[in-house]
Sequence to fold (356 residues):
Amino acid sequence: MLTAKRPALRRFWIIDRELRANRFPTAEQLAQLAEVDVKTIRRDLEALRRNHHAPIEFDRVRQGWGYRDPTYHLPAVVMTEGELMAMFLAGQALRQAQGTPYAQDLQRAIQKLSEFLPDEVSVHWQALEQMQSFHQTVTTLQDLDLFRQLAEAVLHHRQLRIRYWTASRDAETERTIDPYHLACVDGTFYLLAWCYDRQATRTFAPGRIRELAETGETYVVREEFQLGDFFDGTFKVVSDPSAPLQTVRIKFAPSAAKYIRERVWHASQRLHQEADGSVLLELSLRSLIEVRRWILSWGSECEVLAPVTLRTDIQHEAAVMSRRAMGVSPREQAGSALEAIQSRQQRRQRKSKKTG
Fold:
């Protein structure tokens, strides 16, 4: 026996199409078209009359169902070509979400949307796949149940007690937090929350939360918390609200300049084209941790001009990398660093005696 394996909205669309065409189909004919049993169609006809006020009646002369009012229109899902393309791109983006907490929910949502489409809609999906696609190289691993708990806590303002692992110290601590916001930055989720232990808003990586429990309390977001202000001066997510804004100036060689020009790396960026084909990138940042790592990824194709502290950090990091590449041991590196410091001190002393 046929079962109601097609969604109700799809069946409603089939019924509406046949009645609007004045074909006066029987319940049996509608059941065959919708691939369900007759009882399901009879329930659908009643639901259309009760819930959608459809003027459906049985015409005894034509021995079939029709609309008493030909001007009636059934509320339907209408998709434009652009919306259909957007739906395809959402399906492609779903591949990028594999392994993330929202992957299953996205899959179900897109499946439901696709089931609402009428049979007449046909798309050459293979051709579209040749046009556009999404690829993600890095995905953070999340505990799905834990992530859902976080999302619900943010939505309903529920206070949490967590056990959190801090990577820099390789230590776990107990924290009481008010979870304010879940931000997805470059495919990675971060939780912004008020930390009672630190008495400040902090950024937490959900994957580092070892345990989570609700305290039973709710909270009100503090007036001083503004999402835009929190990310102000960050290159990605690492913030330092107490630090002043600094102008970071990076010069990229002509070989890298063409790639720098084609993207927006930061909301504050300013680009200056140089006569030799190089490009000067200026950023306004408070924290230099993330931009420092980004600069190192460009290797010799970029040079830090300002601030001096960042330039010195890059120089030191490049020197350590060079010594390691040559096989110099950490102990020897420490000795070389100490010798360099002593040498600088000696030069300063000699210079001081001369000027004295």
Remarks:
- Residues 247 and 284 are 5 Å apart (CA to CA).
- Residues 1-5, 119-134 have pLDDT under 50 and may be disordered.
